[in-house]
Amino acid sequence: MRFDSSLDARLQAAREILSRSRRVAAFSGAGLSAESGLATFRDPDPDALWSRFDPIELASVEGFDANPQRVIDWYNWRRGNYAGVQPNAAHRALAGQQRMIQITQNVDHLLEQAGVAPERVYHLHGSILHDRCHNSVCEHRERVDIEKPPGLRACPRCGDRMRPAVVWFGESLPQETWTRAQRLCMALDCLLVIGTSATVYPAAGLIALARQHGSRVIVIDINAGAASDAADVYLDRSAADVLPSLLDGFDLGSDS
Ligand code: APR
């Protein structure tokens, strides 16, 4: 059920699915944090990060090797944009579902700031609040002060370069987190897909994986796209606008 009925009817259909679902999880992207003021990557607006910057120059190992200072400066600019940003009504609605697991591509910690227990947030693409050693054998990791982030520096443990603890294009997802996310999506009754263009793999593959294992899919996105094409119900509204009413009165969980 996508565009072929009113939003109220689709909202009712989505709530109907949730009322029959024992195991529910959320899979989110940059659209979840858009109404907190953080730029998305591919929105058709001039602020979208990949409209303004070259992802390979700034979010890849090649870019870091070519010009580490430029990459560190760009992430510290993003960290500056994040300072003082607050969770929005969508984060708070999700935090109201304490038993639900949040699989997110977002590197911000707005779900945790809204009250989601850190162990119930699976950050598939890492964290902008941390630096890690570029040497994947060393794995030294530090939380950074995003108001005064460190510049280009050596790892205190092995001397290689420190870099933001985010997953760059061409890098593998954190193995244990990725395995847990896949295992979870193979045992769901419903997957809430919130604010993602569903174009970056392997993360985007979770939607098809959930469907293949019998899960229903509810998509919340202001634009139709790859995710809404796979939806049982597509809610073409902003996350902050629709999640509070979608989840109102439920106590959803992800564990069987
Ligand atoms: N409410 C709901 N959806 C929204 C909102 C909103 N307020 N604002 C934007 N969106 C939707 C857009 O329509 C789009 O479908 O959020 C999605 C954002 O898509 P992208 O910008 O591609 O972000 P994302 O899907 O998270 O990107 C995935 O790509 O660059 C990498 O590592 C980066 O994790 C990121 C990954």
Task: Describe the fold and architecture.
Strand 4 and strand 5 form a beta hairpin. It is globular, with a radius of gyration of 18 Å. The chain is of the alpha/beta class. It starts with 6 loop residues before the first helix and ends in a 9-residue tail after the last helix. The mean pLDDT is 96. The strands form 2 sheets. The protein has a 6-stranded parallel β-sheet with strand order 3-2-1-7-8-9, sandwiched between helices. A 3-stranded antiparallel β-sheet has the order 5-4-6, covered by helices on one side. Helix 1 packs across helix 12, helix 7 packs parallel to helix 12 and helix 9 packs parallel to helix 10. It has 12 helices and 9 strands. The site of adenosine-5-diphosphoribose (APR) has 23 residues, from helix 2. The site of adenosine-5-diphosphoribose has 23 residues, from helix 2.
Structural class: alpha/beta
The first-to-last residue Cα distance is 27 Å
**Major pleated sheet:** 6 strands, parallel
Q: State the CATH class of the largest domain.
A: Alpha Beta
Q: Can you tell me the overall shape?
A: globular
User: What value does the average pLDDT take?
Assistant: 96
Number of strands: 9
Oligomer state equals single chain
Which sequence of SSEs, written as H and E, runs from N to C? HEHHHHHHEHEEEEHEHEHEH
What ranges have pLDDT less than 50 throughout 5 or more consecutive residues?
A: none
Radius of gyration: 18 Å
Helix content: 25-40%
